[in-house]
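Section 3.1 - Work completed
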Amino acid sequence: MTEQPPIPERTPTKRIAVLAGACLLLFLVGGVVAVLRFRPAEIPKTYSDTEVPLGVEQAVIIRSGGPRLQARPYRRGASVNLRIANEVQQGDTRIYDIRYVINLPGEFDLTDYLTSTDGRSLDNLPSFRVAGLTSLTKDIETRIQEIETVGIRIWHWYYETLVGLGVVWLVWLMGLIFIGRPPRPKKETPRPPKPSITEQIDRYLRMLADGELSVDDKARLESLLLQDWRERLGMRERRMATACRYIEENSNFGQVYRQLQAWLHNPRAAVGANDFVLTYRDHVEQRGAEP
């Protein structure tokens, strides 16, 4: 039965990143909803019958029972230019179809631009005031739309579509960042340095003082001692057999070497572990000393 690998736990850093991403997403969505909810509605421009754009001819019907009316002569640069397009007599009343164009912004009285054909005053003619607006455009179709009140509005969903696409993109980005992301590799703790030959020898000697060593431990202790002595004699490149002969003849290590061989390989010599340790301590007192 195979064991399944343990599921890696989420580190605190990853939990914080996921929480921050979720908070950012909620904040953006809430802001978008608030903007759409409290966005001021567009108020369509409306004009009254007496408010007209500059340069657009307008029409007005005036009924008068007084003297016959006529337009004042055309003057270049005048605030209002006026003409009588049609005139109809109905009994004692005349009906005038008056067309006028406002050239300058402001309020004006159309009766100021009318006069009588016989020169009499027009005191009985009621005032008719109009206002000129500066919202004039170049396109005639746009001019018509400006002076007409359009009650039909087509909902285009433009901004809502942009907001929806932005939210989808943000969710997709968060998914790319956080979903299926492999866990970060754990930092390997540095391995402790390998003990030196001298430290290993000291450890085996302490083990030997506390009790008997196993066969493998004895073999390892012998190998370490021979390596240490060979290096201290400067014979690292020599074969071990040659180095052993030099060690046996050396004044510092010779006695210890013979005690080691007798303890490990010659039971008849009656050399015990304590005898070897005492000899080793007597002849190898300073590990860093030259042989």
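Second construct:
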Amino acid sequence: MTGVAKQGAIVVFAKAPRAGLVKTRMCPPLTSEQAASLYEHMLDDVLEATADFAAALGLDPLVAIYPADGVRDVLPRTPGVYRIIAQRGRDLSQRMDWAAAEVAASGASPILLRGSDSPVLSQACVEDALRALRESDVVLCPDADGGYNLVGLCRPRPGLFDHAMSTESVLDDTLAAAEAMGLRATLLEPGFDIDTAADLALLERARAAGQADLCPRTLAYLDERGLWSPAC
């Protein structure tokens, strides 16, 4: 990675918004093309919001893209403040380890990794993670399905994610790995990802509570296409 970071970094994990590659657990009821378009709108919202967080909090914003040739799909929609890296590794656990090591090599600390399918993750949550990292080695923001949508690290911890990812036990497995490595871990207030059609009900409730201001494109797409039902 070129350049030398003199601050913390926040990395958005992104996929090329291609039918059949993203949000496949939403199909059915969505078609693969609808699922890809929904992800595309979520990604746009997340990239804009995270760029704002980074500017407000003095973080270096990066986007890590999968697959490597997905750069051509994601780059045109990425705000110019981001540095672009390709995800590397045979699975998500390796790609997370690699991204943390790559960012740390530029001098960045702390390091935050966030998903691109958690459109209501707020700046307050990022601030909480940074605050917790003053006394913890690992910070996780749980989501509703047993995983997490934000990871905070003071420095890379090789092997922390060396277990099956995208499972109902991934949060517990990561906490167990942290304990085995002697790391201090902190959990933030839970959030949610949009992984299945049923998860759209969580987004609808967040909007009703005034907590979905960060994802206008996502909401507009769902409204315009009438995709809230049958999930909501």
